[in-house]
UniProtKB/TrEMBL annotation, chain A:
It is a multi-pass membrane protein. This is Sugar ABC transporter permease. It is found in: Cell membrane. InterPro entries: BP-dep_ABC_trans_perm, MetI-like, MetI-like_sf.
UniProtKB/TrEMBL annotation, chain B:
It comes from Streptomyces hawaiiensis. The lineage of its organism: Bacteria, Bacillati, Actinomycetota, Actinomycetes, Kitasatosporales. Residues 230-251 are annotated as: Disordered. It comes from the Bacteria. PANTHER family: ABC TRANSPORTER SUBSTRATE-BINDING PROTEIN, ARABINOSE-BINDING PROTEIN-RELATED. CDD domains: PBP2_TMBP_like. SUPFAM superfamilies: Periplasmic binding protein-like II. This is Sugar ABC transporter substrate-binding protein. Residues 238-247 have a biased composition (Polar residues). Residues 1-20 form the signal peptide.
């Protein structure tokens, strides 16, 4: 199908506008993080700070334990990613390879579970965690993040498994490899990109999560970055804008970097198996 | 909202499961959750904790940072989960649920006589629920007019003082006089219109909530209650002397326009001075003026910041001693300066640091005696009345969408139906 020049220009203009729209909050955040207080109160704000300063970063680090909170976030996000992948991989294999009614039902349930509001999910989780004495603990938070990330991880990984030709596994079986050996030596290496992409997806969602962390973590030494960021906000929503922007910018960086590295794989993972060959 | 809903559900499901939150490792350790958030305020709190710890090796206090944004939900789940801090910083209008719920200790017999007598009775009323006192009110802030001093001087209008404030009618005339094309005499930041309107209405003799002999509260939107809303409405819709765009804004949002010379005055909380000092362009001359007065003089409603002790705290005596230390007059002054607010303590209020004309401290200090508990402080059902009835009704009235009659009908008719549900 041939697309006219005008249509193409229109498409690119729309795309550019959308990209600008998406980038605006982040660029504004970066700009604000480097502005001195007097520029924050200007009626005609500029994109590039006239008198850039690192004072907001200094103040943010002085006032709040950002590094400690970042460490907690890192542990929670890494833990969630690793455990989610470990559980989701064999589950995804079963769902993708065993096309039984049960597998279909599981897939359906996974999709439906994504529509649950957080508030429904957290009450049973809270009760379970309380009985396990895991309230106010990073392992407890990891458990919640795993439960939260698992459905999507399973769905994503199942697509990767379907993309691995079953003939390869059959060939391994003919050569005498058992089911576990086949899974470890043949399927898993081929799934590696998908496993990485899924793990990193779980990492990013856990890194950015606020609601569960707010409710489940009580003491400051356990709090994660998104929770600590709220400490820059005062009564009636008044914010210490400069330090808040500086801290938020730093908190955004890891997930941005990770996302930039893996975005191709995530897209590939989501599309793999979508079209029947 | 989700977090609040969650917390309430958890409250129902987990009642009776708390197990106390203080850790002892040979010596007493108290956890003090502070909501200080401004740089100077956090520093003042941390220093005081450090000084206490240096002087009291047997009773160590741990500074815990809380957040105004989520304090209610966070405390509710903390109480239920047995993880509550021992010493709790909050605002008086947030204490009722916790006090009636049995989560906070009654401080009546715990506090020293010095502290009790230092804080005026009207301030204690804000933290008194039933027969108990569940918090020490220690910081408060009136609403003031922050004015562009150069603009006011050049216009030749009479500059008000706490002794000779503007009346509401005079205020309206002056904002009209100060307005011109693209310029407004005042910018009302009324994102949260209810508390601002109610608290300022005390100055005109407004009361809105009336408690009958049976103890039940009803809403009556009388002539005195109408003075402040009518002034704001007329400034925005009739005189065009109030910027219509700031009616839906928060206080901070009005500052850029104020600095740029679009508005001559902005009614703000006293603590906003800190942001103004930080953000005002060099050479910008500003001053603090008292809010207009009416039949009730300069009276205003406030919900002071409070310090409470958790009922689960096993070392209430030591926690009370820490409160006493934190709220000694010189320390109260340090906390007030850090937060750019006024102390409730009469001795602290006399401190010269809070009487200086610099940054309008003297004007604020002169208003302190006129501050009263916010009218809605003890009204059951107020949060629902505020969210479902008063906020939309006042927003519509201020924007000109409805008239005073419709506002009255909504506040009284719909409002009393809501309050009645809580008072059966």
């Amino acid at each position: 199908m041939r697309i006219s020049r005008a249509a193409r220009v229109g498409q690119y203009t729309a795309l550019l506008a959308y990209l600008v729209f998406l980038a605006f909050p982040f660029l504004w955040l970066v700009s604000t993080a480097f502005k001195p207080p007097r520029e924050l109160g200007s009626l005609h704000p500029t994109w590039i700070p006239k008198d850039p300063t690192l004072g907001n970063f200094r103040q943010a680090f002085d006032e709040q334990p950002l590094l400690h909170a970042a460490f907690n976030s890192l542990i929670a996000a890494l833990g969630a990613a690793v455990v989610a992948v470990l559980i989701a991989t064999p589950m995804a294999y079963v769902v993708a390879r065993r096309r039984t009614r049960l597998a279909k039902a599981v897939t359906g349930w996974v999709v439906v579970s994504q529509a649950f509001p957080f508030v429904l999910l957290i009450i049973p989780l809270f009760l379970v965690l309380k009985n396990l004495r895991l309230i106010n603990s990073v392992p407890g938070l990891v458990l919640v993040y795993v439960v939260w990330a698992l459905p999507f991880a399973l769905w994503m990984l199942a697509g990767y498994v379907r993309a691995v030709p079953p003939e390869l596994e059959e060939a391994a079986a003919v050569d005498g490899a058992g089911r576990v050996r086949t899974l470890v030596s043949v399927t898993a290496p081929l799934l590696a990109p998908g496993i990485v992409a899924t793990g990193l997806f779980a990492f990013i969602t856990a890194w950015n999560e606020f609601f569960f962390a707010l409710v489940l973590l009580k003491t400051p030494e356990k709090q994660t970055l998104p929770v600590v960021l709220t400490h820059f906000i005062g009564a009636e929503g008044v914010a210490d804008l400069g330090p808040l922007a500086a801290a938020a910018f730093l908190a955004t960086l890891p997930s941005l970097v990770v996302f930039a590295i893996i975005q191709r794989r995530i897209t590939g993972g989501m599309l793999t198996g979508a079209v029947k060959s | 909202m989700r977090a609040r809903l969650l917390a309430l559900v958890l409250l129902l499901m987990l009642a009776g499961c708390s197990s106390g939150g203080t850790r002892d490792d040979g010596r007493i350790t108290l956890r003090f959750q502070s909501l200080a958030w401004q740089e100077e305020s956090v520093e003042a709190n941390k220093r005081l904790v450090k000084e206490w710890n240096a002087a009291h090796p047997d009773v160590r206090v741990e500074y815990v940072q809380g957040s105004w944004d989520s304090v209610h939900d966070q405390l509710l789940t903390a109480f239920e989960g047995g993880e509550a801090p021992d010493v709790i910083h909050d605002a008086s209008d947030d204490l009722a649920d916790f006090a009636y719920g049995g989560y906070l200790a009654d401080l009546t017999g715990l506090l020293p006589a010095r502290l009790k007598s230092d804080i005026p009775r009207r301030s204690w009323e804000t933290a008194t629920f039933g027969n108990g006192v569940y918090g020490v009110p220690f910081l408060q802030e009136p609403r003031v007019l922050i004015a562009n001093a150069t603009w006011l001087r050049r216009s030749g209008v009479r500059i008000p003082t706490p002794k000779e404030p503007w009346s509401w009618a005079e205020f309206r005339r002056i904002t009209e006089r100060l307005s011109g094309p693209g310029k407004y005499g005042v910018a009302w930041p009324l994102k949260e219109p209810v508390s601002a309107t109610l608290n300022l209405s005390l100055s005109a003799g407004g009361q809105l909530f009336h408690r009958g002999p049976d103890g039940k509260v009803t809403v009556r939107f009388g002539a005195a209650d109408q003075v402040v809303p009518r002034t704001i409405h007329d400034q925005a819709n009739t005189d065009r002397s109030a910027s219509p765009t700031t009616l839906g804004s928060g206080g901070s949002d009005t500052l850029p326009g104020f600095f740029a010379g679009r508005y001559a005055m902005v009614p703000l909380g006293f603590s906003y001075r800190q942001q103004i000092v930080q953000q005002a362009p060099k050479g910008f001359d500003w001053q603090v003026l008292p809010a207009p007065a009416g039949a009730g003089g300069l009276t205003q409603g406030v919900s002071p910041q409070t310090l409470s002790i958790a009922e689960d705290c096993p070392h209430k005596k030591e926690a009370a001693a820490f409160l006493d230390f934190l709220l000694r007059p010189p320390n109260m002054v340090r906390l007030a300066l850090g937060d750019w607010m006024l102390p409730t303590g009469t001795q602290a209020l006399r401190d010269s640091a809070l009487r200086t004309t610099r940054h309008g401290w003297a004007t604020g200090a002169a208003l302190a005696a006129q501050l009263r508990p916010a009218p809605a402080q003890t009204v059951r059902g107020y949060p629902e009345w505020k969210d479902k009835v008063a906020t939309p009704a006042l927003q519509e009235y201020y924007s000109g969408a409805i008239g005073l009659g419709a506002l009255r009908e909504r506040l009284e008719g719909d409002g009393n139906l809501v309050l009645a549900r809580y008072q059966r």
